[in-house]
Amino acid sequence: MQIVQRVVEMQGVCRGLRRGGAVVGMVPTMGALHEGHLSLVRRARADSDAVVASVFVNPLQFAPGEDLAKYPRTFEEDCRALEREGVDLLFVPQAEEMYPGDAVTTVSVLGVGDRLDGASRPGHFTGVATVVSKLFHIVGPTRAYFGQKDAVQVAVLRQMVKDLNFDLELVTCPIVRDADGLALSSRNRYLSAEERKQALVLHQTMMRMQQIIAEGGRQSEALLRGGMEVLQRVAGVRVDYLSVVDAHTLLPVTSAARGSLVAVAAFVGSTRLIDNFLVD
Ligand code: PAJ
């Protein structure tokens, strides 16, 4: 596995791959890798001639007061895992390399980027869209792989790819969970043993709402009432949002149908966790 830190060098290597006709699969990450990340890498490995990953804790997507400084960094382990999964090329730029002092251009996905997590974390998706568009320009992948775990991020990036005519396919991969159902997240390591138990309520809420739908309940109001009953059962959990929306626009729908997204965000202690499912 070749490790590159500089943008110019990365562009050169990737240009070479494309000239050689390689199908290039890209997996952008912020490191602290777990099985969720690795599932994307495996999918990319199966689909591509060359697999490119990036590990970059993007300062632009953290608001002041969020966890940028304490975000888990496990670089050596990440390298070993990526190498094991057959990644060919790993991009690990420093913050100054991605954002030189004179950089002033950002990418904002208006509307979609301001809903759900975008409403709770103003500016977050401008940070995500900016860094992902830079990575797409630097690498020029054939396909890029993202997790359904971050459903709002997927909606934002799909809109960006369409609006800015990125010549690539965005592939969404299913949520990977722990055995008890908790969606894997780099932030799970912030949880105390007690909070780890409380965190399960997000998945339980999603399962309850799935059950209501399976029993024929489609009205969002009733769905949300059923979900809230479960979510509010645990004292240490503070709800950020529980919503039934269109998966593309992220606007609320009055009744859940194919293509609707049910999504939750909640604080467990001081850790913000998310979960979701797509209605089929
Ligand atoms: P990060 O949180 O490191 O996640 C990298 C990718 O892994 C994202 O596409 C995310 O959806 C996916 N992922 C995380 N947990 C997952 C799980 N349990 N199951 C399936 N996929 C999972 O998302 C980011 O980084 C950043 O915003 C980034 C896109 C890299 C831009 O900085």
Account of the protein in words:
This protein has 280 residues and is an alpha/beta fold. It is built from ten helices and nine strands. The protein folds into two domains: 172 residues, 3-Layer(aba) Sandwich (Rossmann fold), CATH 3.40.50.620; 93 residues, Pantoate--beta-alanine Ligase, Chain: A,domain 2. Strand 2, helix 2 and strand 3 form a beta-alpha-beta unit. The chain is globular. The model has no long low-confidence stretch (mean pLDDT 98). The structure holds pantoyl adenylate.
What does the secondary structure layout of this molecule look like, with pairings?
Elements: E1 2-4, H1 7-19, E2 24-29, H2 35-47, E3 50-55, H3 75-84, E4 89-91, H4 95-98, H5 117-120, H6 124-139, E5 143-147, H7 151-163, E6 169-173, H8 193-198, H9 200-214, H10 220-231, E7 237-246, E8 260-268, E9 271-278
Parallel strand pairs: 1-4, 2-3, 2-5, 3-4, 5-6
Antiparallel strand pairs: 7-8, 8-9
Helix pairs in contact: 6-7, 9-10
Query: How much is the radius of gyration in Å?
Result: 19 Å
Uncertain residue segments: none
The number of E-state strands comes to: 9
Question: In percent, how helical is the residue content?
Answer: 25-40%
The CATH architecture name of the largest domain reads: 3-Layer(aba) Sandwich
Instruction: Report the order of strands and helices.
Output: EHEHEHEHHHEHEHHHEEE
CATH superfamily of the largest domain: HUPs
* List of distinct ligands in this structure: pantoyl adenylate
- Structural class, by secondary structure, is alpha/beta
Counting DSSP H or I runs of 4 or more residues, the number of helices is: 10
Strand order of the largest sheet: 1-4-3-2-5-6
- On the 0 to 100 scale, the average pLDDT is 98
How many independent structural domains?
A: 2
Largest sheet: 6 strands, parallel
CATH level 1 class label of the largest domain: Alpha Beta
Distance between the termini: 39 Å
The portion of residues forming beta strands comes to 15-25%
CATH topology of the largest domain: Rossmann fold
